[in-house]
Design goal:
Helix content: 55-70%
Radius of gyration: 29 Å
Number of helices: 23
Strand content: under 5%
Length: about 625
């Protein structure tokens, strides 16, 4: 009897109508149906009605989640540029390094800052996820910043004036700098991607707010850069280096606090296979199969997925049909990336020129008249703001005026043409710097120095530092064409699942540019030992010949790039659309006709058209605004 009573109670509860179903936070935000068994179903006692509960409206992601991410990015960029903009002066003045050694060390460090993002992207994509990567590397970053500030404040950790640092002082200095370089590697490729993860592509409000997020993201980067180059640099030279480094260290601590404070509001993506590991796996498998057996030739199929007359055919050895471990689609993805390698090689030379802005340009400005008004002296490193100003003005000018005007008259510059013009303008920047140096050395030979302007590195010439403005402006113009063109090229010509690899290629070219720039300085030092071009006292050197040498090297690269560009065939790679629903995909017009060159893309789509879905592979270095106009300085 008791068992029967329990059975009747269970049946009665099962047939009771419920007042409604409460959705979990995930169900409400993901748009899943409340009637499904996923979610938290709550039985309601008492009066029962058939009226369903109204789902709570999702709060604004931009206002509730993104402030924590934007605060992190602002403080981190303030910290980074507060250190990097004037680092060459600190190494020269406070650490006793020669002019050439200081510039070489800055270039090496800057190159490492662009190499470590490959580590951060790999960990975020395939190991621990973006949130943990950002928190871990931000903590390392913070330790490095405070260690550097401590070395500038404690007398035992930096040498007296006119003395060289000992082993312990060098160990603390470079240990701190390379901790910072490692820390920025976990933040640089992941913060914008993590911010994009917070928006639901199936929610119309989130789609619109995502565009605003990128606008605010680049705005706070600009603010951090300008404040660092104008205010923090002045504090370092006019008040105290220890205070000037303590402020960026405090900003980095605030960046960590800001980011961690929003942890309960974040949406987290699970790490998946890293595209980098798959990319290397395909290349290694193809190379191994090529060495262990002869290539299959002469096979005929009714409709080959990969035409055998395309370039880099040896990569096909990694496919399963030829004894490899990878699918045809994965092999073709890697082929699309490899075919961009010649362009990648030519972009390295551009970054060699670009690195001069943060090292040799600053050293040149240190021996020019920097008096602004009365006794107010501006730091030479503050002139990097001209580069920033040029970018802020020229980016919208090119995007909204010049490019539409060229389109109206029938000329549409390709991405490679824009990169080529950017490279040529970089040549003009070096020629402008050489012209300024020729006149500065002429005034130095005539002993036209300002009163009280002598230092251990030479006397200050009676020539305004603002004569350097054209070379900074030309570098900024070259970025608008060359740097942005590079970014759009590597972004557009890659399949979706390999975009992180292609964007990593641009970061790698920047890193190699820093390393090669340091190598060129050391080579110049060795080759000009009898009559050094870059001595400690630049008034007794030939810095103008160094700038002319770089201009000539860059001109040779421009010619080489022309041959590479003329031989490059653009690939129309279909990318995943970020529209909201499948209905949008259905409303699209008829698909493009299938051509022989696009047969593989249609049979095994690399990035399937249609509504946006969760990507098959995580992408840490690839999230960009709709108009990917992101200058190198602000990445």
């Amino acid at each position: 009897a008791r068992r029967g009573e329990e059975t009747r109670r269970r049946e009665k509860r099962r047939t009771l109508p419920t007042k409604g179903t409460r959705r979990t936070r995930w169900d409400m935000y993901s748009g899943s149906d409340a009637s499904e068994d996923e979610g938290e179903n709550v039985e309601v006692e008492g009066e029962v009605t058939e009226e369903p509960m109204e789902a709570e409206e999702k709060p604004s992601t931009l206002l509730t989640v993104c402030p924590f991410i934007l605060g992190n990015e602002f403080c981190e960029r303030l910290a980074f540029y507060g250190l990097s903009t004037n680092l060459v002066v600190y190494l020269n003045r406070q650490m006793g390094m020669d002019t050439l050694d200081a510039a070489s060390q800055v270039n090496l460090w800057a190159g490492t800052c662009y190499m470590t993002p490959l580590i951060g992207a790999y960990l975020a994509d395939g190991v621990i996820g973006r949130y943990r990567t950002i928190v871990l590397f931000s903590s390392i970053y913070c330790v490095g910043m405070f260690s550097l500030a401590l070395s500038a404040a404690v007398p035992l950790l930096h040498p007296p004036l006119d003395k060289y640092p000992n082993f312990m002082q060098n160990a603390v200095l470079f240990g701190s700098l390379y901790l910072i370089a490692l820390g920025t590697g976990g933040i640089k490729p992941n913060v914008s991607a993590f911010g994009a993860d917070q928006f639901d592509e199936n929610n119309e409000r989130d789609v619109n707010e995502k565009k605003s997020f990128f606008n605010w993201f680049y705005f706070v980067i600009n603010c951090g850069s300008l404040i660092a180059s104008l205010l923090i640099v002045w504090i370092q030279e006019s008040i105290s280096w220890s205070i000037g480094f303590a402020i960026p260290a405090g900003a980095m601590l605030l960046a960590v606090i800001s980011f961690v404070s929003g942890r309960k509001y974040y949406t987290h993506m699970k790490p998946k296979e890293s595209p980098l590991s798959r990319f290397m796996g395909v290349l290694l498998d193809a190379w191994r199969n090529k060495r262990t057996r002869r290539r299959l030739r002469g096979e005929e199929t009714a409709a080959p997925l990969i035409p055998h007359n395309v370039s880099y055919a040896w990569i096909e050895d990694a496919s399963a049909e030829r004894g490899g471990k990878y699918s045809e689609a994965q092999v073709e993805e890697v082929r699309l990336v490899v075919r961009m390698f010649p362009v990648f090689v030519t972009t390295i030379f551009y970054w060699i020129v670009y690195q001069q802005m943060g090292s040799i340009f600053v050293e040149q400005g240190e021996l020019m008249d920097r008096t602004l008004v009365g006794n107010f002296v501006i730091p030479a490193a503050s002139l990097t703001s001209f580069d920033t100003i040029a970018i802020i003005i020229l980016v919208p000018l090119f995007d909204r005026v010049i490019y539409p005007l060229l389109k109206r008259i029938g000329f549409r510059p390709t991405l490679l043409q824009r990169i080529g013009w950017g490279n040529f303008i970089a040549v003009l920047a070096m020629l402008a710097a050489a012209g300024v140096e020729v006149w500065r050395l002429h005034l130095a030979d005539e002993k036209q120095f300002i009163d009280g302007g002598a230092s251990r590195d030479g006397e200050i010439v009676r020539m305004s530092v603002f004569w350097q403005a054209p070379q900074y402006l030309l570098v900024g113009m070259s970025e608008v064409l060359g740097s942005i063109g590079q970014m759009e090229f590597f972004y557009d010509q890659a399949p979706d699942s390999m975009r992180s690899i292609c964007m990593a290629m641009q970061l790698l070219s920047t890193a190699l540019g820093g390393y090669f720039s340091s190598g060129i300085l050391l080579a110049v030092q060795w080759a000009t030992q009898d009559h050094p071009w870059i001595p400690r006292n630049l008034n007794k050197g030939r810095l103008d010949l160094y700038f002319l040498f770089l201009a000539g090297l860059m001109m040779v690269n421009v010619i080489l790039f022309m041959f590479v560009a003329m031989g490059y065939e653009y690939k129309e790679v279909p990318h995943r659309r970020r529209s909201g629903t499948a209905r949008d995909a259905e409303d699209e017009g008829p698909e493009e006709p299938v051509t022989a060159a696009r047969h593989f893309e249609r049979t095994q789509p690399i990035a399937a058209p249609g509504f946006y879905a969760e990507p098959s592979y995580a992408r840490s270095i690839t999230v960009m605004a709709d108009s990917p106009l992101i200058p190198a300085r602000f990445r």
